[in-house]
Design brief:
Blueprint lengths: L10 E3 L7 E3 L1 H12 L5 E7 L5 H7 L8 E4 L7 H12 L19 H13 L3 E6 L10 E6 L2 H9 L15 H26 L2 E4 L7 E4 H11 L9 E3 L7 H5 L11 E5 L5 E6 L2 E6 L1 H6 L1 H5 L1 H7 L5 E7 L8 E3 L3 H8 L7 E8 L4 E6 L5 H12 L7 H4 E5 L5 E4 L5 E3 L3 E8 L6 E4 L15 H7 L6 H7 L5 E5 L3 E7 L6 E8 L3 E4 L5 E7 L2 E5 L8 E4 L3 E4 L5 E6 L8 E8 L3
Parallel strand pairs: 1-11, 3-5, 3-6, 4-5, 6-7
Antiparallel strand pairs: 2-8, 7-8, 9-10, 10-13, 11-12, 13-20, 14-21, 15-18, 15-20, 16-17, 16-19, 22-23, 23-24, 24-31, 25-30, 26-29, 26-31, 27-28, 27-30
Helix pairs in contact: 5-6
This protein binds 6-O-phosphono-beta-D-fructofuranose (F6P).
The site of 6-O-phosphono-beta-D-fructofuranose has 11 residues, from loops.
Length: 582
Amino acid sequence: MTHTVYDKYPEVAISGYDHDAWQGWEPIIATLRQRLAQQSKATLIVDCYPGVDLNELERHLFPLLTPSLLLNVESARLDKTALHHLLARNLTDDRVFGVLSCHHLNEFFDSQKIENLREQARENQGLTIIYGPGAALVHSGDVLIYADLPRWEIQQRMRRGELGNWGAENRDEDMLRRYKRAFFIEWRVFDRHKTPLLQRADFLLDTTQPGNPAMVSGEALRAGLQQTTKRPFRVMPFFDPGIWGGQWMKHQFDLDPTAPNYAWCFDCVPEENSLLLRFGNVRIEIPSQDLILLQPRALLGDRVHARFGAEFPIRFDFLDTMQGQNLSFQVHPLTEYIQQQFGMHYTQDESYYILDAEPHAHVYLGTKNGIHPQAMLDDLHAAARGEKAFDDAKFVNQLPAKKHDHFLIPAGTVHCSGAGTMVLEISATPYIFTFKLWDWGRLGMDGLPRPVHLQHGEQVIDWQRDTDWVMRNLVNRIEPIAQGEHWREERTGLHEREFIETRRHWFTGPVSHHTGSGVNVLNLVEGDEAVVESPSQAFSPFVVRYAETFIVPADVGEYRISPTHRSQGQQLATIKAWVRGE
Ligand SMILES: O=P(O)(O)OC[C@H]1O[C@](O)(CO)[C@@H](O)[C@@H]1O
């Protein structure tokens, strides 16, 4: 194991706006008072992402601004039953999978009630505050604050039973169902609603840490996001235990030693990660998604933006089964299936880059030569009914896995990582469209069987992917590309049905890279530490440590990666991913 300090709180330092951010209610209130004092009649809008604790605002913020009228927009929301009725087709009865929503937020409100609130605000003298998710539907605001919240914090609040879905009063409902409603509906609709608000907000309020708010001016926020697209950066990783989780990340990343295990680390799934921006003494935590929503072209590049819109298409995450267990035996939907069933426009193509492995580790990939598909499905169905264990040895390839192997997993290929592997997943961003076929007869962390989706899975398995095909197409398709005095470049994937290209560089000296007008995502997969620099000094040197994932925005263009003095004498390696297209 390498012992460098993996940074769990990477920040992007923003220059030129040191005095445009405030920490704590007192300075926040003083700033807002000063701003509002200029007008005798004013409307303050505090629009919020669902999950923001409105009680905290009602207790600590609004009374101190002494409004003459305080309106909560939630009073105009459709009631729980009407909302449920409207969303039934998107919610579905399944515990895990819904259908992606194309709703706009105004559809979730009673237009007459919104009009009544508008009327009250019009008639009021002095300060009117309208607040809550959707407040800007009532009035555009003389002053607009957007209170944002990252998805990971929302999930923590849901898991602790503090939060249900927006408008659903369902704090006690199954976590999978609450996550489903958030993923397929709420987060889509509220991202759509907040994008134009962030483009003009006067302030962004960060209430991620209860009792410790921070605020930044809209101008500083937008400048900060723009500056972020001109340099390499990292998003804030998060770690989650799971039934198959291992012990490698706990030691390597210095995580809570009392946790039973850590299964996942998401360190480049920007729609779920946070982005930490530093303005002088103040750190602001926002959803990384805000960067994608506000700066899609500079971040992704024209070509990738044209194809994916304001979505970050590349996912890097870790799956740790060192001293752990097998993942579920699974398959991901083919493109037409994910489009037709779930309304997602691209599918969950994957790959496993093996960062580390125990001596007898293996991955399961593809079916064995000559098996009968119906016999395998019958066996899986019998296993799902609890009649027997699935006979994986009879039907599925078990391939040895060692450090730096790269297994390619185009959708439709049955697979799973086995116990004893530390996987860096380099995949397309969709990550919840996993059809479990068999979960090894075990229970989940909550003591219940994890949901198996054989009825979906059996419709998307590609039975051509047998041993011969898998060995020819999906295992270590490594090709030398170029080399210099201190480096060599190899292509490692992905498969031609997948849109991501991956290149590995082994190096002992500087290596030149170019974003090629599309976003790059990299990880230092070998060596202690490297530094990313701009040949034209366009950004400050950016140090990355072993196993850290970092993003190089399309706008960066040329960059160079070299070993630092800590890595002198070592051979280092990076793996780089981008969206194919040139
Ligand atoms: O279904 P399991 O066993 O939790 O498998 C892990 C799953 O986690 C992910 O890596 C990310 O959530 C999926 O790609 C993968 O299928």
